[in-house]
Structure formats: C-alpha cells, structure tokens
Design a protein that fits this description.
Mean pLDDT: 79
Number of helices: 3
Radius of gyration: 19 Å
C-alpha cells in the first residue's frame, strides 16, 4: 500500500491526518511554532510548483494529441 503513496510523491508524514482546526500543537514556544509554519509554507509552495509543472505538461500533451487525431 505504501507504494501507491510513494508513486504519487506523498510522504508518510503528509499522509497522516492533520490535527483538527483550532487545536494547538504541543509546541508552546512561539519561535518554534513560527519555524514549523515556515517549514509548512515552504513545503506547500514546493508542492504547488510541482503541481503547476505537472498541469502544464498535461495541457501540452493534450494539445499535442488533440492535434494528431484524424477522425
């Protein structure tokens, strides 16, 4: 089952359910919380770039194959 996640680029940490909204993380130190949030933002930005690249590739492939069909 883990292979499917690996293939999609989902890590075990990302596959874990997130804490319910409004529930604070165990970290009390505000500086540590800021570091965690900055790391999460960086992770989400990297994911967004990857998804945008994949979307562009799929659009180009669809355009290419749509031009090749001679029905």
């Amino acid at each position: 089952m883990l292979r499917g996640r690996d293939r999609r680029g989902v890590t075990a940490a990302a596959a874990k359910p997130a804490a319910p909204p409004g529930e604070a993380t165990p970290s009390v130190d505000p500086d540590e919380r800021v570091r965690q949030l900055e790391a999460r933002v960086a992770e989400l930005e990297a994911s967004e770039r990857k998804l945008a690249t994949e979307r562009d590739i799929l659009r180009k492939a669809a355009k290419y194959f749509a031009g090749e069909t001679n029905w």
